[in-house]
Write a structure and sequence with these properties.
The protein has a single domain, classed as Alpha-Beta Plaits. The protein is an alpha+beta fold. The protein contains three helices and six strands. A hairpin with a 2-residue loop joins β4 and β5. The strands form two sheets. It has a four-stranded antiparallel beta sheet. The chain has a two-stranded antiparallel sheet with strand order 4-5.
């Protein structure tokens, strides 16, 4: 796997009440990832970018919602998210606070 693809796999963190609660309880971090990314690629990308040890990866395909835009009906895009479990002692700090 080349470095360019590895840097594009992780689109960004998912910041919500559920992802924060999961992070506090289970040492998991939730990322929005490319739709064609595999568990192995996600694991390698997280380990390389954040210098942590990953013990597990669970992926989930999220279906886009149907929304109305005035009189027309539209649909949001489908996307994929990954729940990444970190090893004991590993932590990812998105805020940068010390």
């Amino acid at each position: 796997m080349n470095n360019e693809r590895m840097s594009r796999i992780l689109i960004g963190p998912v910041v919500s009440e559920k992802s924060t609660r999961i992070g506090d309880q289970n040492r998991q971090v939730v990322f929005r990832v490319l739709p064609d990314a595999s568990k192995f690629e996600i694991r390698k990308a997280v380990e390389k970018m954040f210098d942590v040890t990953v013990t597990g990866v669970q992926v989930m395909n999220v279906k886009g919602k149907v929304k109305r835009f005035g009189q027309t009906v539209g649909r949001r895009s489908d996307w994929k998210k990954a729940y990444v479990t970190l090893a004991e002692g590993s932590d990812i700090d998105f805020v940068g606070a010390e």
